[in-house]
Sequence to fold (326 residues):
Amino acid sequence: MKKINWGIIGCGDVAEIKSGPAFNKVNNSALVAVMRRDALKAADYAARHQVPAWYNDADKLIHDPAVNAIYIATPPSSHKQYTIAALNAGKPVYVEKPMAMNVAEAAEMTDVAKQKNVKLSVAHYRREQPKFKKIKQLLENKAIGDVRFCQLEFLRPQLSAAAMKVESTAWRVDPAVSGGGLFHDIAPHQLDLLYHFFGEMKNVSGMALNQAASYNAADLVTGNILFNSGVVFNGLWSFAAAPGEGADTCKIVGSDGKICFSVFDDQTFSVTIHDKREVYSFEPLQHVQQPMIQKVVEYFREESANPCPSEEAIKVMNIMDAFTAG
Fold:
C-alpha cells in the first residue's frame, strides 16, 4: 500500500482524542471515513474532524473503495464481528484492546487473519510510547541488574450511581458488552507491558471478588505470574476502594536497584540504584496512540514488523482469564 486510508468503526470517546486525529498526523496515513450506529453522531464526528465520509452501517464503510484499512474502536462485544468482516474483505485491521470478549473469539479472529493472509494488529499502544520504551531499554541493559520481582497496585473508588448511568462508563461494567468489569478495561494495558518487558510465562494464577456488588463483575482482582526468566509478579486491582485511596503504582526490583512508575497517571518514572535516584520525564502525548499508529502504518506498508501481533494479545487475555477464574 502506498498510503493507508483508514476507516474507523466506532467513533466514540476513544477516537475523539486518543486515536482518531492521529491517523491524519502520522506519515503515509489519512482518515477518510468513520462509522457510528447513530447517524447524527457519525456526521458530527466527520464534520468536526474534517473526515470526507461517514456511515451508520459498518458494512458500507468496510466496502468503501476509498478505505484500505480498518480501525475498530467499538466495545469488545463487536470486535470479532467487525474484525472478521474486514479481514474477509481483504482489509488489514487495527483493533482496540481487549482484543475480544474472550480467548476463543480472539483465536478465531487470528485464524481468519492467517487464512486470508491479511494483517491484524492490536491496540496495546503503551508499548510504543517513549516512557515505556525507555523502561524496556533500561531493563534490557540491566540498569537495575537482574530483575527479581515486580509489584503493581491499582486502586480506584467505587463508581457513583450517576457515573453508572453515563453511556461511556456503563458499557465498561457490563460483562455482556465488555467481557468483564473495569479490570477488563484497565488491566490489558498493564498486563501487556508486563509481557512486553518480561516475555513468556511459566505459571499464572489469581483471584477475583465482587466485594461491593455494585455491578455484575469482579471489582477486586489479584494476580501472580512466574515468568520463564524467573521474574515474579504480583498485582492488585480494586475498583471499590475508599475515596482518596486511589493508586497507580508499579515497582520493578532488580539485584542492583528498582524502577518505579505509574501506567496511567504520570509521565515520569524513577530509577534508584544503590541509593542514587534519577527521575526521567516525558512530555504528555496529545494523542496517546500516535506512536503505535505510526508503527501500525509502517507494518501495513510492509516497512516494519507487527508492533502487537494478535498472538501476543491472546496471551494477555489468557492472563486476565487466569486472574479472574478464581
